[in-house]
Write a structure and sequence with these properties.
It is built from 5 helices and 3 strands. With about 140 residues, the protein is an alpha+beta fold. It folds into 2 domains: about 60 residues, no CATH class; about 60 residues, Helix Hairpins. The protein has a 3-stranded antiparallel β-sheet, covered by helices on one side. Helix 2 packs antiparallel against helix 4. The radius of gyration is 21 Å and the shape is flat. The protein starts with a strand and ends with a helix.
């Protein structure tokens, strides 16, 4: 799953010009706290745009490939449950699909969330661990 996150960098968090070296150094500092899957230890790419949007001092784009969708899907299912319990907006969908399909869709989201959790919790095979250690120390 590829997720694009664009965010604004406030002037307080960087003194003077923002350089790519600063971004890479901070990313290296944060990398141990990130729970990236073993099969993609370098799943983050960051681009610093030299022409920021009008009125903003900087512009950064971060692309991250990870299993973080499990939390998003869990939140989505929780919101669905709250609305479905109150039967909010169900009448709009019941014209086109049965309510059984809504419950099946919820179960599919839960199944997908569980698959993401399995991928996140998986450990590398022993033969791959040495290669991964070399790759992480190289970056």
């Amino acid at each position: 799953m590829l997720i694009a996150v664009a965010f604004e960098v406030s002037p307080e968090c960087c003194a003077g010009d923002l350089r790519m070296g600063d971004v890479q150094r901070n990313l290296a500092r944060l990398r141990p706290q990130l729970h990236l899957p073993y099969w993609n230890p370098d799943g983050i790419k960051i681009g610093l745009c030299s022409a920021p949007p009008v009125g903003l001092p900087h512009s950064i784009l971060s692309l991250s490939n990870s299993c973080c969708m499990a939390g998003v899907l869990d939140t989505l299912v929780g919101r669905f449950d709250r609305l479905y319990r109150r039967k909010a907006h169900v009448h709009h969908f019941s014209q086109y699909v049965s309510t059984g399909h809504l419950v099946e869709a919820r179960e599919e989201l839960l199944r997908l969330r569980d698959q993401y959790n399995e991928l996140q919790a998986s450990t590398p095979p022993p033969e791959a661990q040495g290669l991964l250690d070399k790759l992480v120390s190289f970056t």
